[in-house]
Amino acid sequence: MATEQPCYTLITAPSDTEQPSEQQLKQDLERGDIRAKTEALKKCIHSILAGEKIPGILMTVIRFVLPLQDHTIKKLLLIFWEIVPKTLPDGKLMQEMILVCDAYRKDLQHPNEYIRGSTLRFLCKLKEPELLEPLMPAIQACLEHRHSYVRRNAVMAVCHANPSERSRFIRCIYNLLNSSSAAVRYEAAGTLVTLSSAPTAVRAAATAYIEIILKESDNNVKLIVLDRLVALKEHPSHERVLQELVMDILRILATPDLEVRKKTLELAMDLVTSRTVEELVLVLKKEVTKTHNTVEHEDVGKYRQLLVRTLHSCSIKFPDVSATVIPLLTEFLSDSNELAAADVLVFLREAVQRFDNLRPLVLEQLLEAYPIIGSVRVHRAATWILGEFATTADDVQSVLTQVRQALGELPLVEDERRRAAGQATDEEPSQQQQTVQKLVTADGTYATQSAFSAAPSAKKADAERPPLRKYLMSGDFFVASVLAATVAKLALRYCRLVTAPVKQHRLRAEAMLIIASMMHLGRSGLPDKAISDDDLERLQLCLRVVAEPNPLLEKIFLSACKDALNSMLKVKAETEAPRTAKERGVLAVQPDAPIAFLQLSGRNELAGSEDVFEASLSQAVGAVKRSAADFSSSKLSKVTQLTGFSDPVYAEAYVNVNQYDIVLDVLVVNQTSDTLQNCCLELATLGDLKLVEKPSPLVLGPKDFANIKANVKVSVNTTLTDLNEYLTHLMTSTNMRCLTPEKGLSGDSGFLAANLYARSIFGEDALANLSVEKPFNKPDAPVIGHIRIRAKSQGMALSLGDKISQVQKKARAAAAPAGA
């Protein structure tokens, strides 16, 4: 039976335009000027796409439009030839298409490279071998054209025109990888990967992509080619090949564009293995060194932050390299870029929590960098880490010493007043200091020149303060609350580690002095801003904990904080794990999945399950014989005859499966010589099967035929009165999973729409679109609606429909006695 022709072009026609007659179109195409012929050709295209049949227009276009050399008309003709029916009802090619084929050949030899290239792109969309075979010499000649646009499209046309002989062109495509044109190399690499999944082919294509990125100056081109590399990585067998090229991929970091660098680092992190991680870390270290030697601007800071995060991921993924990464990253703590320093502390916090063997190294590096940290945010985080993970008596003493040095001499208020008094005393003589210098003028006389020295500024005095005191004097007492909690933790932990009462009292007194000094400073009026009530209350709590410790507060200060950090890291890992698995697209194979043996399968059963390159290579060497189409697997075996051959109206049906849509396609043929008005197709359904919509009447001319399509779905017939209850009942009974998120199903409404999914033990997928409703003003009314089932096989759809029907019958039968 006739099937619907494939179409690759969709054009929206204006809804307010009137459909022209066939006679008017022929007249405009024959006698009109270029503009009139262009408009008439557009109307023809709109009519054909709308389903109109214009049988006599084909020869008119060939005679009066095809010879024209206007570029606009040639563009429209490519669309016209793509959508126009090219075969007779019996499937044979129309005789008129021989003339069209001759016109294609002339366009393939046209001196204009655009006409050649666009014609080659059009030929990629044709499926008729009778049209493509005579054009193969001209297509192959375009492979040697001087213009890259023509050669690139010729490669695609060759591969699409010869799907069974692709192996013959592998060597040609390999040669195109060495072309001087980046566009040709790009298309050749993509074509090579589609033809073969062999490691050598994937490696050659990936190398070509990398070279294009390195040599092209356009950042958009770099990003597009990088996306191709990322797409290659998604295939499991290709990923193994790319893992060997990770060092070549890192060469792309020489590009100054930040987005390109970001994608490159993400790709490298996905491909790094235990064998290449050390080399990766060395390259990243060199990149970090380069950022220190360049002029500081926004992109450099963001790139430095990307490097820090990448090194962080490397260290967590491969703990063996952490010992070499930590000393490098701690250098960023004194960096002017606060974001990079904050990322370093996030890494150090996670590393010291996860890996106990790294704690001494992390504490040592933090203590060395503590005095040179220049950001209050970084100082707060570093202080918390030191207080939380200083677990030995020596570590406690070292951390407390660094804190004292970062605060300066205690008590803080008295020291600040001495500083202010000394500064005022030094300012008085300096303001009156005068420098006198004698000069000799041009006429030999003496002249004097006086100069007064400037007084020391407040900024210079602020620069001389220790870092933590500088923050306190500026009014930032949030760091004081963090510092007080850290000192309290150190004091409590030291008292557990050291049993000597004298040492305990000495360290607790020092801790109380630090906290009390910060409280006094906050209320003294010396800082730019007074301490807030919240910070003051926090300091008072820490002071009370040190002075009068009790078991509950000790547990909170010494254990609860670390437990909270551990819980946060677990939640973070659980959140990132599904996202990573989803991005990587892990292929899960069921244990009962069928195994396809290539030697035991027919040629028609291997679509998508074998390597195209290997199959075409086998055919090229004659190892596999081509067999005719098997009748049992053809469409003719699935056609159901609805009427007799001698009936005035002949009808036959075929279930057309298009992806997940199942449509009943009915062919109706008028075998009489009369015009039949209002021909209707009446379909009777069994059980709960219902039609989506009734087919509309049509008019059949003498000996004419038409295709009528109808969708079949299951109607909802149940006694349940709650929409969500019916959905739950349906999922439980059919073992289907709801794809609609819970947010879309929540709330009170009179209707519900949801998508359900199921997979059989044989690997068949099925989708069900549930659309139910109930009257909002009748709370006891049953649920009504429809369920549309879509599957790749007819048996799967029908069996699932029968299952739903049985479930609803059982529900009604169970509800009947209860109602009685």
Topology:
Layout: H1 22-31, H2 34-49, H3 57-64, H4 71-83, H5 97-108, H6 113-123, H7 129-132, H8 136-141, H9 148-161, H10 170-176, H11 182-195, H12 199-215, H13 219-233, H14 236-243, H15 246-249, H16 258-271, H17 277-292, H18 298-317, H19 322-330, H20 338-354, H21 359-369, H22 376-389, H23 393-407, H24 412-432, E1 434-440, E2 446-452, H25 458-463, H26 467-473, H27 478-497, H28 501-522, H29 533-547, H30 551-584, H31 612-620, E3 640-641, E4 649-658, E5 661-670, E6 676-679, E7 689-691, E8 698-700, E9 705-710, E10 712-717, H32 723-734, E11 737-738, H33 742-745, E12 751-759, E13 765-773, E14 784-791, H34 794-819
Antiparallel strand pairs: 1-2, 3-4, 4-5, 5-9, 6-8, 7-10, 10-14, 11-12, 12-13, 13-14
Helix pairs in contact: 1-2, 1-3, 2-4, 4-6, 6-9, 9-11, 10-11, 11-12, 12-13, 12-14, 13-16, 16-18, 17-18, 18-20, 19-20, 19-21, 20-22, 21-22, 22-27, 23-27, 27-28, 27-29, 28-29
In short:
GO terms for molecular function: structural molecule activity. Helices cover 55% and strands 10% of the residues. With 820 residues, it is α+β, with helices and mostly antiparallel strands.
Low-confidence stretches: 427-436, 451-458, 603-614, 616-633
Helix content: 55-70%
The count of DSSP E runs of length 2 or more, i.e. the number of strands, is 14
Main sheet characteristics? 6 strands, antiparallel
How do the strands of the widest beta sheet line up side by side? 7-10-14-13-12-11
Mean pLDDT: 78
Structural class of the secondary elements?
alpha+beta
The CA-CA distance between the termini, in Å, is: 53 Å
* Rg computed from alpha carbons, rounded to a whole number of angstroms: 40 Å
Which descriptor suits the 3D outline? Answer: elongated
- The number of helices is 34
Strand content: 5-15%
